[in-house]
Write a structure and sequence with these properties.
- By secondary structure, the chain is an alpha/beta fold.
- Helix content is 47%, strand content 16%.
- It is built from 19 helices and 18 strands.
- Bound molecules: 5'-O-[(L-methionyl)-sulphamoyl]adenosine.
- 5'-O-[(L-methionyl)-sulphamoyl]adenosine binds next to strand 1, helix 1, helix 7 and strand 14.
Amino acid sequence: MAEPERFYLTSPIYYVNDVPHIGHAYTTLACDVLARFKRLDGYDVKFLTGTDEHGQKVEKSARDAGMDPRAFTDKVSANFRDLGRVMDYSNDDFIRTTEERHTVACQELWRRIDDNGHIYLGTYAGWYSVRDEAFYAEDELSDGADGKKTAPSGAEVEWVEEPSYFFRLSDWEDRLLDLYESNPAFIAPRSRRNEVISFVKGGLRDLSVSRTSFKWGVPVPGDDQHIMYVWLDALTNYITAAGYPETASGDYATYWPADLHMVGKDIVRFHAVYWPAFLMAAGLEPPRRVFAHGWWTNEGQKISKSLGNIIDPLQLVEKYGLDPVRYFLMREVPFGNDGDFSHASMVHRMNGDLANDFGNLAQRVLSMINKNCDGRVPALGAATGDDEALLAAAHGLYGAISPHMDEQAFHEALESLWAVVRAANAYVDHQAPWALRKDDPERMGSVLYVLAEVIRHLAILAQPFMPGAAARLLDQVGVDDGKRAFTDLGPEGALVAGVALPEPAALFPRFAEDEAS
Ligand code: MSP
């Protein structure tokens, strides 16, 4: 048998300065949905997430908490792992940049870049934002209300002057532009691609890649007065986890280059400019694609700790349930755009799309089978044009959804699923199987068979988005665990008449408004 094609995708690694919030949950969720989709589609998937634990920001947070940075990072990193359990992420690895394997990879990458002549020693004198962990040129800054300079992100900056190694980023302009030109899908969505291209065309300055004024980081090989710039350290996680430095038979050759780095729009420059330049300078291949999604606001307001309106994903899941939260985040906003979280829109999706549309479809069909077909899959008699049309829509779903997933258009994939949910509900209304029970039970059986088979397709394809609900629904239509992959969507996987089904149970609860608050 041919080796399965591999698919390597990564989330950003999260700063351990804080508890996880909805923004963190969102980026990793998008990866999880895609990872699950690709696995069901037969790929050998490697899905990586983890925590970014070095640098001045984390060191300062540890100090503020009165803790040693190592103990502090152990504690906060565990919160991100806990989030993963609650959100049911299916990551294959969880990397921490304080791990030994990562120090080894960072130092090796540095050596290669240095051996190739792309690093020199100088002095950095300029602005630095600890919150963004980024260097800024004077002309990028503006004057804040209190007279202090601020970065474009709104973060405070401070003046830094210290010996530093520099990466010759200015040498990479043309090669980066070539990379974007020859791989139009390298940066998505288009607005971000344009933004990156104009940034690079505007001219690149050499980049400071080491710091000397604090110690919490990976030492520069051969000069441990310096620690590596936290972004060089952090980005390297993607190859560390792929098994870099490479061995002849190791995972690196199998999984690198990554198929996708999923990131938020604020960190696209690091991933689409600095990272491919570092890799090419070391003689390594750049990743295949970087997708930058938008940001969530809360009831119309920017989310920030100072405003006290951080959305805690654990509380969301507790209040609305995991599958509804996963569905909402992937459905509400065209992936790539900014979006607003509100209680009203969450409840609207839950009660409308989930309870009324999908849940009600399953409930109606399964309880009719339970009551009128002796709780067994009915037989399909002679199919009518309506039957054929609905079955054809279900059979076409995988083909409709798959290209959307390859473009990370998760909202479109769900819209395609729901087009079939709506068509199936219209078919139930039109065929009125309950009215056939007395006079034409055979036809009633055919209608319910068609519907059960459509539900099987919907449930198999909904698995990446709502793993819990989809699994329960597949149990209810009697689909064995080993028959839930996309290859089972074909006729060999079709429901078999006579198979006993379990007692149906409601799939999606309605959210009663008076439970709100
Ligand atoms: N540590 C770096 C990433 C290094 S990757 C080599 C970092 N960490 S972070 O914890 O600050 O942010 C991680 C992700 O959360 C980013 O992709 C960011 O866009 C995302 N979000 C943070 N707030 C967000 C919202 N309000 N909405 C959506 N996503 C947001 O950056």
